[in-house]
Design a protein that fits this description.
The chain has 155 residues and is of the alpha+beta class. Helices cover 31% and strands 19% of the residues. A two-stranded antiparallel sheet has the order 1-2. A two-stranded antiparallel ribbon has the order 3-4. Strands 5-6 form a two-stranded antiparallel ribbon.
């Protein structure tokens, strides 16, 4: 049962063997092979070693049917699922700026706190450690510290 093929010393994934597809076109194709650790609890992406370097599964999927990602561009997930490799529906070419704007609009960035949450965090200064407040508010301790120190960016 070959889940990949060897090409020039590298193992190239067989997309059909490494994804779970619940439906074909309209669903996310979830990468089920290796996943990076996500630094400090961050976003986790599908990854594999191509013989020289770690490759993002979503980048590989997009490039497998398109050209290489041009300099200054990235592959964005329209579905906001970092494990998705559905190049037919969910992946698109974009800039870092477009990705940041998309994150802000969809409120899926670390600073996406409501005014009520920010007020609550401010009220907890000196009462509880930032790690406790951050856990309760689903944000990072450094974000709580920024709010307490007046350095939090409002988007």
């Amino acid at each position: 049962m070959g889940h990949s093929r060897k090409e020039g010393g590298a193992f190239i994934p067989d997309v059909n063997a490494w994804v779970s597809c619940a439906g074909f076109y309209d669903a996310c194709w979830i990468w089920t092979a290796s996943i990076d650790g996500g630094a400090r609890g961050g976003i986790k992406y599908g990854k594999f070693f191509d013989g020289e370097k770690l490759v993002g599964a979503h980048i590989w999927a997009w490039e497998s049917v398109n050209d290489n990602v041009p300099s200054g561009y990235i592959i964005m997930h329209k579905c906001d699922n970092p494990l998705c490799v559905n190049y037919l529906k969910c992946l698109k070419l974009g800039t870092y700026k477009e990705n940041t704007e998309d994150m802000i609009i969809k409120r899926r960035h670390h600073g996406a706190l409501t005014e009520e949450q920010i007020s609550y965090i401010k009220s907890m200064k000196g009462k509880e450690p930032s790690r406790v407040v951050s856990s309760r508010m689903n944000t990072s301790p450094s974000n709580v510290q920024k709010i307490w120190n007046g350095k939090h960016k409002i988007y």
